[in-house]
Amino acid sequence: MTFTPHVEEQSKAVLSWKHLTVRSKRSPEKALLKDLSGNITGGFWSLMGPSGSGKSTLVNTLACRLTPGMWFEGEIRLNGRMYCLHDLKCMSGYVMQDDLMNGALTVWETLFYAGELRLPHDMTVEHRRERVEESIVEMGIGHVRDVVVGDSLHKGISGGERKRLAVAMELITHPVLLFLDEPTSGLDSVTALSLCSKLKSLAASGRTTVICTIHQPQSKLFALFDNLILLKAGEIVYLGPAGKAVSFFEKAGFPCPPMTNPADHLMDVITPELGEDADIAKAKGDRLKKYFTPKVVDLHAGSDRPAMPMRQLIPWPKQFHVLFRRSLQEHRRKWVQVATQILNSILMSILIGFVFYRIGDSQASISVRQAVLFFCVINQGIFASLETINSFPSERALTLRERAAGTYNVSAYFLAKTATDTLFQLLPPVVFSAIVYHLVGLQDTPEKFWVFTGFMILCQLSATSLATMVSCVARTTDLSVVVLPLFIEIGRLFGGYFLPPAQLPLYFSWLYALSYVKYTYVGIAQNELSGLKFTCLPSELVDAACPISSGEEVIKRLGLDFITRDQAAGILILLVVICRVVAYLGLRFIKW
User: Fold this and answer.
1) Is the pLDDT of residue 477 over 70?
2) Residue 313 has what DSSP assignment?
3) What pLDDT shows up at residue 287?
């Protein structure tokens, strides 16, 4: 039995596929989709089937979003033409099962920034705002427009509202195709019905063809679908109008019992029961295959339709500007975190300041001065790196979604985020320096204070850049917090305090050269010791003279004169750049 799908006359897109087979590198001998053929025209389409039947695989194949390690054989066409992910980015939307959003932004801000990034750059601000309002009204989320989206730690909008917001973000661009992976997952029946009613209205308008996977919808929800693709073990057992599926199953010998949800009945037939004999399950499938005759697919279907509008990426400077403003807004909403960082700096500077209070200029102060300078470096590095380690991993899934949608270039996102992070990382070391410098009693001249502060800032930036590099390459927070301490401890061990440079074994010189701790310590030690005069108690005199009378002698004895203060600052800047370049490459190319 061959069915002609319900077609919206105004639909702009026809998706066709022929002899489509999908395999995975893990088990290439087993096909996930087996020689499928069919087409999708206008309307509201549902892909149903038991878990593992290939629903998401088919949608991801048609949307050119197969995960790495999977590939397909066969042909797929859009309006009779071959297409790729780049083409779909310019004309379609994809709503993932997980609602990945910026929890610190409001609903309106989320949509506005999405519009700023995805709508044509020559569109006026007023027109963009109209698109935002249109999407809000279309998805019925006007009552939460000024509510923060929220996350696992902060209450925000409900699950149903998040799902509708995710759809609204895609509707801003007026997509020709809208793919949704399990849009009703995690929603109650009322919320799921409300969402699908909105999708039905969207599809009925003819502007967008809606294609969604769904597991087992309620009867009211099932009645909304125009067309149905039913899959079992990677094979299509039904493709046609959703309203005719029950009669097809009845003719195949599987009548729907009275007072039974049609969707439940269809799923019961194609889903093997627990402990059911394999031969019986196979017989059911064979009977359905016998009655279902796949329609002959014309790969050139839709080729006579007008060319679809192709959305282009906005210019790179505009991407950076929008992403910078968005990141800045997120930081403002996370003021508690920023305040905590400053409070940590205040508390640690007071603690260090009173432990080493007014160390003076005696002979005993020489070793104490070394210790306090080194501890300042360690303190800034550890706190800064730990505060940064989750910065990129926490947003990784979100950025992958936005990149897959063709929202922006990775370089624009990376530079915008690191720029805003850097702005908020400047204040803590300044506060720390202002307190600890004067409590300890280091050389009280404006020039030396600001040089000390500058090195504390460079130390902070070096540590955060190192943490950023680790987090972008290691990918997850769990792995990052395991790897980062190794780098921190290596930096501390070869920091120039425990083992002076002159005593370092040659085979460790490469680790010594990479330690940001060393360059910061050498820089502030030279800054503090140069021009400093030491005094002696009578008991400390040796041959009626002070053993060490100047800071320059200390610098020379400790071997801290192998580079200048300015060179140390330059190397720290170079380390910041290198770490951030590696971090960018990790973010750009590592997607596993």
Assistant:
1) yes
2) P
3) 78
Residue 245 neighbours by CB distance under 10 Å: 26
Answer for the pair 555, 526: CB distance below 8 angstroms, yes or no. yes
**Which fold is adopted by the domain 1-91+177-309?**
Rossmann fold (3.40.50)
Measuring CA to CA, which residue among 454, 483, 457, 455 is closest to residue 469? 483
Q: Do residues 170 and 202 make contact, with C-beta atoms less than 8 angstroms apart?
A: no
Do 266 and 230 meet the contact criterion of CB atoms below 8 Å apart?
Answer: yes
Query: Helix (H, G, I), strand (E, B), or coil: what is residue 70?
Result: strand
What's the DSSP call for residue 74? E
SS (HEC) of 432-491: HHHHHHHHHCCCCCHHHHHHHHHHHHHHHHHHHHHHHHHHHHHCCHHHHHHHHHHHHHHH
The tokens for 318 are 């505009």
Query: Higher model confidence: residue 384 or residue 343?
Result: 343
Summarize pLDDT for 68-85 with one digit per residue, the tens. 889 999 999 998 888 887
Confidence label for 592 from pLDDT (cuts 50, 70 and 90): low
Cβ contacts of 359 within 8 Å, gap of 6 or more: 365, 368, 369, 372, 440, 441
> What is the C-alpha to C-alpha distance for residues 180 and 165, in angstroms, rounded to an integer?
13
Q: Which two tokens stand for residue 515?
A: 């330690």
Q: Are strands 31-40 and 15-24 parallel, antiparallel or unpaired?
A: antiparallel
pLDDT score of 279: 66
282-293 pLDDT, tens per residue?
A: 677 777 877 777
Q: Give per-residue pLDDT as tens, 6-38.
A: 544 445 788 999 999 999 988 888 899 998 999
Task: Enter the tokens of residue 451.
Answer: 């040089």
The three-state secondary structure class of 20 is: strand
Tokens 């720390």 found at: 432
Mean pLDDT value across the chain: 87
Locate the DSSP E strands across 125-207: 177-181
Q: Give the Cα separation of 432 and 444 in Å (integer).
A: 16
Supply the pLDDT for residue 152: 76
Please state the domain extents for the chain.
1-91+177-309, 316-589
CB-CB contact of 159 with 186 (8 Å): yes
Per-residue pLDDT, averaged over 534-541, amounts to 80
What would the two tokens of residue 512 be?
């010594």
DSSP summary character for residue 52: T
Do 179 and 63 form a contact (C-beta atoms < 8 A)? yes
Q: Rounded to an integer, what distance in angstroms lies between the CA atom of residue 123 and that of residue 119?
A: 7
Closest CA to 485 of 470, 507, 504, 495: 470
**Token duo for residue 8:** 């919206």
Q: Give the DSSP letter of residue 182.
A: S
pLDDT on residue 501: 67
Please, how many CA atoms are within 13 Å of residue 510, restricted to the half-sphere of its CB?
1
Residue 8: predicted pLDDT: 46
How many angstroms separate the first and last alpha carbons of the chain? 44
Give CA separation, 336 vs 330, 339, 343, 477, 560, in Å: 12, 5, 10, 21, 40
**Is it the case that residue 439 has pLDDT exceeding 90?**
yes
pTM: 0.86
Helix (H, G, I), strand (E, B) or coil at 219: helix
Q: Which residues contact 478 (CB under 8 A, 6 or more apart)?
A: none
Measured CA to CA in angstroms, residue 83 lies from 15, 61, 453, 486 at distances of 10, 12, 56, 46
Report how far residue 481's alpha carbon sits from residue 470's, in angstroms, rounded to the nearest whole number. 9
